[in-house]
Automatic annotation (TrEMBL):
GO molecular function: maltose binding
Sequence similarity: Belongs to the bacterial solute-binding protein 1 family.
One GO cellular component, as annotated: ATP-binding cassette (ABC) transporter complex, substrate-binding subunit-containing
Keywords tagged on the record: Periplasm, Signal, Transport
InterPro entries in UniProt: SBP
Protein name as annotated: ABC transporter substrate-binding protein
Signal sequence extent: 1-25
Any one GO BP annotation for this protein: maltose transport
Amino acid sequence: MKASRLGLMTGVALATVAMAGAAFAQEDVTITVWSIDGANQVGPSDTFSAEFNEMDNGINVEYRILQFDEIVNETLRAYATGNAPDIVSLDNPDFALFSSRGAFLDITEMAENSDVINTEAYFDGPLNSVMWDGKLYGVPKYTDTIGVFYNKDAFAEAGIENPPQTWAEFEEYARMLAEANEGMYGATISARGNEEGTFQFLPVIQMSGGGYENVNTEGAREWLSMVKGMIDDGVMSQDVLSLGQWDSTGTFNSGNAAMAISGPWEIDRMVEDAEFDWGVTLLPVFGEGDERSSALGGFNLGILSTTEHPEEAFEVLEYFVSQDDRLFPEFGYLPTRGDVELPPSGIAEKDAALEVFQEQLQYAQPRGPHPEWQKISKAIYDAEQAALTGQMTPEEALSQAQATIDTIIN
């Protein structure tokens, strides 16, 4: 009798353990994803995260929106304290900061065995931004660049037949088109004291023969003097010193600026909001036939090396990559892969703008890559701010930036 009772109790205990084990096995794994998508508009990361959750495959994505200015430092703090997300989306020049320090998971072998991720399909620039020391530490998310949007109606009314091809023409047309009493600025840019400022200013340095290692060029000094003169004369708004690209281009969309330097992420909003005929042209050069440049933008996705669920995080990454064909039709972002076709939208202005940005990408140059890009970029946008606010002359501001950059690099 005792033996039977013991056997029964043992059986109940084992059944209880088995049931508990089954319940535990069925519990979803949570993968945290951090990105800026959703801060200003619906984007890929927030959209794909929500879709992935609907698949009910045992993996739950917990999505968090961070601001552009916060995401790098917030991720660094989280990594240092053991509270890092599983996946983070970072501006491409910031990737080397994490990859070089082992903060990202090496996914080289996982990608080689993947039926979704094919590294040979990526364009060289975006792919190089997720590589470090010959290893793959993430996947390019999307790419972009910048050009000049212009108000065709305003140009026609002023008798200007073609968009500006040189910076001299850019200034000339901006001054012709500015109507301060009517709330119309000649042009708008983002000269904000953050990465957006560097994103728009660095191409000027590059097309004048410099780069992030050599910023004090004659062309860069001339350009800063030109922009400051337009700000002082009301041809550009003083707000360009504080506005990000999204808000700055909003000035153009509302009909309050005749030109705006911005990127393809604005096309869909422009199609919907702009109540005038508009077009896009390549970034101006200093002289006819001079070397062109433009910014290489876009974000990457990486799995933090501290993740407790690398396989599940990689599965989320694969789903994001599998949706690359939706990047431009739904979000206005250019894919980083040559095997993703961009079908015509049927909207003439949108398709014409896309052709210009695809041509502009041929001249786009990277920011860095360098593990200390944040410090280098700060030296560049600080110089721009100092020159445009009149705290320093362009020569003084760029000389100071160059000295700072020399210390960082050497």
